[in-house]
Design goal:
313 residues, five-stranded antiparallel beta sheet, two-stranded antiparallel sheet, 10 helices, elongated
């Protein structure tokens, strides 16, 4: 900056004055740049953090979607193969049982497990006609129902029978249509309780036409039902005759006992050598949680029509 002296000559500021004049504005400009730089860094950090969270959420959603897809197709494949081919599966098991010349009863359930990616599938396929139908007992032996159910459940779970009451239930003869009406479980989603339910219902069912398949029903169930339908002596004779002639059909086996007409009629009402209802239990485990499914398919209520029930936990 030039200044005029008293005598009219131009004078120049000293070097120190020039330095001061230059540094003043620069200090103010440097502070402003520093603040803006810090603001930009903070905005960048927040933007990157938000982007990171969004990326992690997308990755998590992708993993869950992949697991859901694996679970869906694994579940669908199990049901399609096992339940749709249940009759053929048990026919083959029965044929192997005959080839090995083993005594009856033939297998009434089929279980296994397999891995799909990082998910474990455990299944249990069972013949419902090899189990005592609680609805049939309610109709034919109402006084003995509770004792038979407790006996065959093996006290694996607490049985608490709560039948549906009303005209519709009486007309369809379906007083029990789910295990929630039969079993008292504090937390049915817990693994130990579900396994207990599987075991407790290995000889009991709420579905089917009420006839017990003489080739597959257990000795315990056969004896319990035949004793109530006829006598304990006849029940023992029936078990012995089944063991001695495993290839005989039901009508021949019944005639071979030489029973009175009343006893034959009573046993015909409870037993046959056919099955028309099957159940599939499925447990899925991905290491973090478990899912449970149950399907029942076939002649569910003695109408002769095929239908399917589905439950999941």
């Amino acid at each position: 900056m030039l200044t005029a002296s008293d005598n009219g000559e131009r004078t120049f500021p000293s070097l120190r004055q020039q330095t001061c004049l230059r540094r003043g504005p620069r200090r103010r400009r440097s502070g402003y740049v520093l603040i803006m730089t810090l603001v930009l860094i903070a905005v960048s950090v927040l933007s990157l953090a938000s982007l990171s969270r969004h990326s992690l959420q997308l990755a998590s959603d992708a993993i869950h979607a992949q697991r859901d897809l694996q679970r869906y197709w694994g579940t669908r494949s199990c049901r399609a193969y096992l339940l749709e081919n249940a009759e053929e599966i048990f026919y083959q098991l029965d044929a192997h049982h005959r080839d090995d010349e083993l005594a009856l009863p033939a297998p009434h359930d089929f279980s296994g497990e397999f891995e799909l990616a990082d998910m474990t599938f455990r299944f249990l396929l069972s013949d419902e006609n090899a189990k005592l139908n609680i609805n049939s007992v309610t109709l034919r032996m109402p006084a003995e129902r509770d004792a038979l159910v407790r006996q065959l459940s093996g006290q694996k779970v607490s049985m608490r029978l709560q039948p549906i009451m009303g005209e519709q239930a009486d007309r369809t003869r379906r007083w029990f249509s789910s295990w929630g009406q039969c079993v008292e479980i504090p937390d049915i989603s817990a693994n130990e309780h579900m396994r207990s339910l599987w075991e407790a219902t290995s000889q009991l069912t709420c579905w089917g036409n009420g006839k017990l398949n003489i080739r597959r029903v257990s000795d315990q169930t056969l004896f319990a039902v035949a004793s109530e339908a006829a006598t304990q002596r006849i029940a023992r004779q029936l078990i012995e005759a089944r063991e001695m002639t495993p290839d005989a059909d039901w009508q021949y086996l019944l005639k071979s006992l030489g029973l009175k007409r009343r006893d034959r009629t009573a046993l015909r009402g409870w037993f046959s050598d056919r099955s028309s209802c099957y159940c599939l239990w499925l447990e899925l485990d991905d290491g973090q949680r478990r899912w449970y499914h149950q399907w029942v398919q076939g002649d569910l209520d003695a109408t002769g029509e095929t239908s399917t029930l589905s439950f999941c936990w």
